[in-house]
Design a protein that fits this description.
149 residues, alpha+beta
Length: 149
Amino acid sequence: MKAWHLLPLALSAMLAFSSAIAAESHGTAAEAKAMLQRAVAELKIDRTKALNEFNAGQNGFRDRDLYVFCFNGGDGKLTAHPTLLGQDVRTLIDKGGAHFGQEMYIQAKEGAISELSYLFPRPGSSEPTLKESYYTRVGDQVCGVGFYK
């Protein structure tokens, strides 16, 4: 068999390998939901310690492009976020005009995990990417974790 006959097979193997590597560099839906469930448990134990860990990305609360975000259910101010700490979540609007922060603020319910899709940049980027977030209310906080599609 000629070496050039193996080219399609080699290209196919390279594409499969690079897809596997790319998948490992981004969080999944299951990982986002699991991180949110851990975050809820931590908030219920010690709210202040949990918010500090979320902001510092400690104790497994920052993994690749997954992170916990929280905001105060009263005034809407972000209490945990890598870059928007202190901003009113109700003012956040994606590039498509969706008022995703306001929707989370209104829809979050204690004991129920909701889902919302919107455009938001990945950490370290300014280009909006489709993101789906799981979020819930825990006492006076609304917290979520999103993954990028």
